[in-house]
Structure to design on (342 residues):
C-alpha cells in the first residue's frame, strides 16, 4: 500500500443540478444543512487553528441560512454518528455542505479523516481508525440533494505519516457527478501556511470573508480568495481550482448594496468616522456593512457620511464582539477607539 499525506489544504466539491442557485435567505423553502467538524487535540500534538476555523465556519454558514451540526475534537465513533445524523437530515433538492478541519491522509487513492483517538500504527490501521471521506459524499448522493459541497481543510503537519515509508504529497481525486466545482487552497504537492495561533488559517480566513459577500458566484468567491491568499503569502501559496459546472451557485445571492468608502487619510467633506484599535485584524462593520480591518498605527476612515447615528460593530476570533452607536454630524470627524476583551 502507498500512503500520501492529504496535503491539498482545502477541497471544495460542489455537485450542482441544472438550476443550482441559492441565497443567504433561502427562498421557496430551500433546506440548507451543514456538518462542521474541527479536530485539534491529537495525542501526537495539538493543532493550532482547526477548531477555531470550524467554529468560524459554523457561524458564517448560519448567517448564510444553513442549519449547522457542529462538532469539536471528535473520536471515531462520534465522527461516524455525526455523519449518519447529517445524512438523516438531508432532503431531496436541498443543499448539503460538509466542512472538516484536522488531520487527513490518503491511502491507495482514498482520503481518510483522522479522529483524535486514532491509533494508527501502520498503513493497515488507517481504514479501521479513520473516516473514509467518500462516505460523506455517498450520503449526499443518496439523499438526492440539489447542491453538494465538501470542504476538507486537512493539510497539516501530519505526525501519522512519519510512521510510513514511501510518503508522497498529494490528494486523491474524489469522484463526483457532472456539474462539479473543485477548489484547492494550494496546488497539489504543496503545503499551505496555517496562520498564527489564535487566528484563522490564511485560506479559511479569506474564504470566510468571501462567503459573506453578496451577489458573488462561487467562481468569484474563490477568485477573491486566491488573490488575497497570494498577496498575504507573497505567492508562496497559490490556490487553484477546476470546474465542470453548467449552472450558477451563490452562497449569498442577495443584491449587493453600495459599499461605504474606507481610506487612510483625512478629508473633511461630510461627516467622518475615524476608527482605531491596538489589535490587528479586527473586522469593522458600519450599519452591518463590512468596511475593512484595523491595523496598529493606522486609522480606518469612513467618510462622506450624512448626519445621524451609525451602528459600529467590531469582531475578531478569540475576543468578545464589540458594538457602539455613534452620532456623526456634518463637517465633523468622530474618533472611536475600539477595545476588544477576551
Amino acid at each position: 500500500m502507498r500512503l500520501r499525506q492529504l496535503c491539498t489544504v482545502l477541497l471544495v466539491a460542489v455537485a450542482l443540478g441544472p438550476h443550482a442557485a441559492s441565497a443567504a435567505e433561502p427562498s421557496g423553502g430551500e433546506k440548507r444543512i451543514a456538518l462542521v467538524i474541527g479536530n485539534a487535540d491529537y495525542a501526537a500534538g495539538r493543532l493550532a487553528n482547526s477548531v477555531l476555523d470550524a467554529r468560524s465556519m459554523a457561524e458564517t454558514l448560519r448567517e448564510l441560512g444553513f442549519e449547522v451540526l457542529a462538532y469539536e475534537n471528535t473520536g471515531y465513533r462520534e465522527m461516524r454518528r455525526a455523519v449518519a445524523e447529517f445524512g438523516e437530515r438531508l432532503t431531496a433538492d436541498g443543499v448539503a455542505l460538509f466542512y472538516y478541519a484536522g488531520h487527513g491522509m490518503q491511502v491507495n487513492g482514498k482520503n481518510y479523516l483522522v479522529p483524535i483517538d486514532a491509533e494508527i500504527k501502520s498503513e493497515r490501521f488507517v481504514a479501521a481508525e479513520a473516516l473514509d471521506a467518500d462516505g460523506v459524499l455517498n450520503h449526499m448522493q443518496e439523499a438526492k440533494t440539489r447542491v453538494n459541497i465538501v470542504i476538507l481543510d486537512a493539510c497539516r503537519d501530519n505526525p501519522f505519516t512519519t510512521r510510513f515509508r514511501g510518503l508522497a504529497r498529494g490528494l486523491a481525486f474524489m469522484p463526483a457527478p457532472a456539474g462539479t466545482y473543485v477548489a484547492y487552497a494550494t496546488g497539489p504537492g504543496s503545503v499551505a501556511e496555517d496562520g498564527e495561533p489564535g487566528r484563522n488559517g490564511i485560506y479559511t480566513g479569506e474564504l470566510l470573508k468571501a462567503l459573506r459577500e453578496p451577489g458573488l458566484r462561487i467562481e468569484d468567491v474563490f477568485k477573491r480568495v486566491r488573490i488575497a491568499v497570494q498577496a498575504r503569502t507573497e505567492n508562496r501559496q497559490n490556490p487553484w481550482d477546476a470546474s465542470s459546472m453548467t449552472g450558477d451557485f451563490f452562497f449569498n445571492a442577495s443584491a449587493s448594496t453600495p459599499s461605504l468608502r474606507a481610506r487612510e487619510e483625512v478629508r473633511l467633506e461630510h461627516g467622518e468616522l475615524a476608527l482605531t484599535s491596538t489589535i490587528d485584524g479586527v473586522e469593522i462593520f458600519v450599519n452591518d456593512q463590512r468596511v475593512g480591518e484595523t491595523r496598529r498605527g493606522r486609522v480606518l476612515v469612513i467618510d462622506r457620511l450624512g448626519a445621524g447615528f451609525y451602528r459600529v460593530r467590531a469582531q475578531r476570533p478569540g475576543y468578545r464582539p464589540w458594538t457602539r452607536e455613534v452620532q456623526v454630524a456634518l463637517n465633523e470627524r468622530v474618533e472611536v477607539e475600539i477595545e476588544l476583551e477576551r
